[in-house]
Design a protein that fits this description.
The complex is a heterodimer of chains A (128) and B (140). Chain A is built from 5 helices and no strands. By secondary structure, chain A is mostly helical. In chain A, helix 2 packs across helix 4. Chain B is mainly alpha-helical. Helix content of chain B is 70%, strand content 3%. Chain B has a two-stranded antiparallel ribbon. At the A-B interface, helix 2, helix 3, helix 4 and helix 5 of A face helix 2, helix 3, helix 4 and helix 5 of B.
Chain lengths: 128, 140
């Protein structure tokens, strides 16, 4: 009886997944996205590109001097990273809504985008 | 899962009909849900775009100008405008449900949901103001 219960407990333990911490990152990313992304889209997507030459030089000087600080760069890519993680998490789960049940490597690839893109960006900026 | 669910389908327990693939177009609620989920794709691509912008900023003025020229491409502008609509939808809906996830206790009582929502709108506007201020000069 005891042995059987142990076996059952083993099965329960082995069913543990990485879902909780993936979910926590998703929540953090959603919060950062909701507060920061509208401003980023407005300023970087529309205002700066259409501000005219003088102004975009000014923006370049202001933002590149900020990013020269490696701690600022790390925070920026950390923030962008959790937002991208949030997006990738939702894109992966949207596949289920579309009734697509992809093999495991697809999930790995989607979440890998969220880790590798900000990491590569930070490395390129730090080495820049 | 109970044993009941393991039983094969029968006349008395017919097999559940599978959903049609386009179930999310069925009702207004489903369509809004689908639109909100689609926003993740636009948002994700924009984040990658911003990563590129930050790298460009570290590479010098010429690289930065090239990134800006790309942003002015008509197709990219269309994408950015759609992304703006999507990101506003995502933010507004996120703020709307946030009081269910965030509880602020004030002694015996709790902070009212409307205050939590208002605080997040305020935070979003502060971020916008800071970015514009910085882009237009700011403190060097």
């Amino acid at each position: 009886m005891n042995l059987r219960e142990n076996k059952r407990a083993d099965r329960v333990v082995s069913r543990r997944t990485g879902e909780p911490w993936r979910w926590a990152l998703f929540g953090a990313g959603g919060q950062v996205a909701a507060v920061v992304m509208p401003a980023l889209v407005i300023v970087f997507g529309l205002l700066i590109p259409f501000a005219g030459r003088g102004d975009d030089k000014l923006a370049y000087e202001r933002f590149s001097s900020l990013l020269a600080n490696p701690v600022v760069a790390l925070l920026v890519f950390g923030g962008l990273g959790v937002v991208l993680w949030h997006c990738c998490h939702r894109i992966y789960h949207a596949l289920h809504d579309l009734q697509i049940e992809p093999p495991k490597w697809v999930r790995t690839a989607i979440y890998a985008v969220a880790v590798l893109v900000p990491l590569a960006g930070w490395v390129l900026t730090a080495l820049g | 899962m109970s044993d009941l669910d393991q039983r094969p389908a029968s006349n008395r327990r017919p097999l559940a009909q599978p959903l049609p693939r386009t179930w999310f177009l069925g009702t207004t609620e489903y369509r809004l849900y689908a639109l909100r989920e689609a926003s993740a794709l636009f948002l994700g691509i924009f984040v990658i775009n911003v990563c590129w912008a930050v790298v460009a900023l570290s590479r010098g003025l010429e690289t930065w100008e090239r990134w800006l020229a790309f942003q002015r491409h008509p197709a990219v502008v269309v994408f950015t405008v759609i992304t703006l609509a999507m990101v506003l939808l995502q933010s507004v809906t996120w703020f709307q449900v946030s009081p269910k996830a965030i509880r602020v206790r004030l002694g015996e009582r709790q902070l009212r949901a409307s205050w939590i929502i208002a605080a997040q709108y305020a935070a979003a506007f502060v971020v916008l103001a800071l970015l514009i201020w910085r882009a237009r000069g700011g403190r060097s």
